[in-house]
Design a protein that fits this description.
alpha/beta; Rossmann fold; seven-stranded parallel β-sheet; two-stranded parallel sheet; 9 helices; 17% strand
């Protein structure tokens, strides 16, 4: 297939790009400055690189017409890193306007399949495992803009019979994860024998290994999709930060907890829908995923 992949220089996109290349797909990406795309340097020569502003609908449509992709995979996002990505206008533009532009570019050029990337933050606080049919009650601007993007994209898909689906990712981890995130911080600190300082032991997440996420996208590429459908990508199990540190055998200094958002007591995915329609479920348990991740970080520590 010919795949147009946005957000290829990020954590999810860089892993997907590699998996798509292994499957012999032709992968087209947008990079403002290829020299700064540190995650892609090893595979840059295998990618078809373009430069266009995703917010410029006309130029984006012309590029999609030129590429003629079989499918679009949309991973570009802004606001996930709440500590440093705080520009609300940029969040609104990147998370809402871009998916709208991609939908109409696809419709105008005959591309029939879009895989959009959402987040479990769209759900907000729940008292039971999160289902794709739950009401959306996000507790931060990032979750709100991603929820709006899902709603708008799904409406366009249903109205125009476009095979667009949204993958709601829970807590991905693995190779190429962003420096400063929880698991990379613990692993790099262990390797360098430096102190690990974290806040609360209490928050819980449904941690899912990146290879399992990529497998779901690959299955979606080869499945006839229902316009506007949504798939949870999680393991169905949650782990507290304390339990995570124990699994990683990390010596942690726990500090005073100052939450950046309201934390639920339950944060895990219901995945029956993903299993039924995609034939997908997470295969990598947390212990094995952490082991693979640490092995990768030891070999790629220079990037961190």
């Amino acid at each position: 297939m010919k795949i147009f992949l946005t957000g290829a220089s990020g954590f999810i996109g860089a892993n997907l790009a590699r998996k798509l290349l292994v499957k012999k797909h032709e992968v087209h990406v947008i990079l403002r400055d290829p020299k700064k795309a540190w995650r892609l340097q090893e595979i840059l020569s295998q990618l078809k690189v373009h430069q266009v502003d995703l917010l410029d609908a006309d130029k984006l449509t012309r590029l999609v017409k030129k590429i003629k992709p079989t499918a679009v995979i949309h991973c570009a996002t802004y606001g996930m890193f709440m500590g440093r990505q705080k520009d609300v206008e940029l969040m609104l533009d990147t998370n809402i306007k871009v998916i709208k532009n991609l939908c109409f570019a696809a419709l105008e050029t005959g591309c029939q399949k879009i895989i959009n990337t959402g987040t479990s933050s769209e759900y907000g606080i729940k008292t039971k495992p999160m289902s794709e049919t739950d009401s959306l009650e996000p507790v931060n601007m990032y979750g709100s803009t991603k929820a709006a993007a899902t709603i708008i994209a799904s409406q366009i898909a249903r109205e125009h019979n476009l095979q667009l689906v949204t993958m709601r990712l829970f807590a991905p981890y693995g190779p190429w994860e962003e420096p400063g995130r929880l698991i990379p911080t613990i692993i790099t600190s262990q390797i360098k024998n430096s102190e690990i300082k974290l806040g609360s032991k209490i928050p819980v997440r449904d941690f899912i290994y990146i290879d399992d996420i990529c497998e779901a996208y690959l299955k979606a590429l080869n499945t006839k999709l229902i316009p506007g459908d949504i798939f949870n990508l999680g393991t169905g199990k949650q782990t507290s930060l304390l339990k995570l540190a124990q699994l990683m055998k990390a010596q942690v200094t726990w500090g005073e907890y100052q939450p950046v958002q309201q934390e639920p007591k339950i944060w895990r995915a219901q995945t029956a829908h993903s299993q039924k329609l995609l034939g997908w479920h997470a295969k990598t348990d947390l212990t094995m995923g952490l082991k693979k991740t640490k092995t990768w970080f030891k070999a790629h520590l220079s990037y961190y």
